[in-house]
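Reviewer 2 asked us to include a model.

Predict the structure of this chain.
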Amino acid sequence: MLRDIAFIAAILILVAALGLIYYVSRKQDQAESERLETIIANEQSPQINNAKIMGEQIEAVESDGEKENGEEKSPEKSEEDDTVTDETASEAEDGSVPEEAAPESGAGSEGKAEKENETKEGDSAEPDASAEDGADPAAAEELPEPSPELLASSIVILNGTSRNGMAALWLDKFTQAGYTSVSAGSYRGAAEPLSVVYTKDPEQAKAIGRVVPGIIIREGDIPGPFVMSGGVDAPSEIDHYVIIGNNNVQ
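Predicted model (structure tokens):
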């Protein structure tokens, strides 16, 4: 009998010990979780506080800027309103129209007349520019037929552009037109925007415009150096130097 009682007591003591151990472990787990939550909250709180502080500062700066803009605009607006009011009152008293509101037909007609005068001046200046370039207006209107002397004269065709092969191309055109003494080369002087012929006989050279459209005729020797194609020597006597410009690039 005593053994049974002792056995039951031992079992009860064991159960009580297990219950106590379980209770203590639960308490420790709760304390640890609370500690971790406290640590996390402490770490996040400075960031949240900083974000709130920055947001408040930004809102304060924006509100200050809006106030300053409003203060700057309001005086200007009031001054403009005062000016308009004063002008309206003066107009009502005098019964007159301000000079600024005067009819604009006169100004418009003057501006139109000035534009017409400028257009006329520009049109009249164009022939002067062509004359300065050495172009012959009569040659642009009526180009004579090439004379036998011109067809047999010594002509050097020079490429005055950046594109290769222009001198040879125009040499073929001169040959097809009946010119019998034509050679090609490359111009080493300043680039010519327009084709030009340097000649001692401008009247005779006018007919070259039938081959090279828009060519300018200038009396005198060629102003810059040149080299002949293929390394050959230049003719001993050259009657006309034809420099192909950018306007005749093909």
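Residues 139-248 form a domain with the Alpha-Beta Plaits fold (CATH 3.30.70.2390). The chain is about 60% helix and 10% strand. We have added this to the supplementary material.
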